[in-house]
Amino acid sequence: NGLLWPSASLLSHYGNPSHSTFTNAERVAGVAVVICERLRLVPDPICSQVVELFKHDVITAWIGSVLRPDEACGLLLGSTCGRWDIYSDWNISLPATPKPPVLPPKPPHPGAPQLRLLFLTDIHWDREYIPGSSAQCKEPLCCRAGSGWPGRGRRGAGQWGDYSKCDLPLRTVHSLLKQLGGQGALDAVYWTGDIPAHNIWHQSRDDQLTALTTITGLLRQYLGKLHVYPAVGNHESTPVNSFPPPFIHGNQSSTWLYSAMSEAWAHWLPPSALHTLRMAGFYTVSVRQGLRLVSLNMNFCSRENFWLLINSTDPAGQLQWLVTVLQQAESQREKVHIIGHIPPGLCLRSWSWNYYRIVNRYTGPRLPLTDPSTTAHCPTPIHSTPHPPTHTMMVSALIGKQND
């Protein structure tokens, strides 16, 4: 967010649609580069590259926004930047069907069937990773061809990766999946996204699709017939965090990404799931009898998705769709796992509030998934780990007002 802060301030000055200067993308981009360089947010060449990559989408979203500059800044960066009120409070409609009684937990009986799940997230493969290169560089991402070589007394990038500003080499992904493939007894894989590297200033659509197809191919190679259920991460797109809702058409839409995902993942997902994946990056599927999976596109709740400046009210109708899925699951006495990349506590306030309302309505007792004799409905959210790692507990009832 280091570049976003001055950019928001920049747009607060130039970004009012009543200003003719706002329509001049090159002028806005030029000022953004100057701010980035003077604040030394990143090395100068990266300032130019990241502004060039983001400018068209960000300016399009800003022109389409109904928010004032200070409201947009508050939406993206919080109350320290501005106050955001307009359209901020909205509610998802919940059905009138009463919530079933919550039954006391019942442990599984001895010898009950078990479910063994593998959780993968944030692989961040860097195809430019070079062992021995500098692991401590000035750029946001190191251990690469452009990182240089370590000076005397400094260590270089490791053969398998590095605990520095570095992503993973492909050999590590090969080794990881090879070991996992030999474990046996796995029933399914939950894979919650972020496939490409963190070089967000220098990524093309071809780069992102290469990462998608390469890692998907390795999962199929090493895990065989095991079903993998993916979720869309914020790094899958370029520019990063750019996930326009379905009402954005043409070259700026996400069709290029969702279509590629539906093609790459058709081996794992049924046509009904591929339909909504292709439309907006989310889906539901039956993992096995009595267990349903919901994969949410959490980019539609992200503060860093600048397309939400246009309209942040339940983008793509995803939460209302979730209510329909959970109501059907409740009627069919299915348990539900919900996966997604961004933890809901890091989402826009109204989206997060509505999500908790939905989960609270459909959450029953925390019954084990291993006991087929238990039939209570139990949606269990599973999201990627935030940075830094934290543990979040969802309470069984919402107390207080939405503004708390």
TrEMBL record:
Lineage: superkingdom: Eukaryota
GO molecular function: acid sphingomyelin phosphodiesterase activity
SUPFAM superfamilies documented for this protein: Metallo-dependent phosphatases
GO terms of biological process kind: ceramide biosynthetic process; sphingomyelin catabolic process
One Pfam family per UniProt: Metallophos
Keyword Hydrolase on entry: yes
Signal peptide, first to last residue: none
A cellular-component GO term for this protein: membrane
Family named by the database record: Belongs to the acid sphingomyelinase family.
Designated name of the protein: Sphingomyelin phosphodiesterase 1
Lineage of producing organism: Eukaryota, Metazoa, Chordata, Craniata, Vertebrata
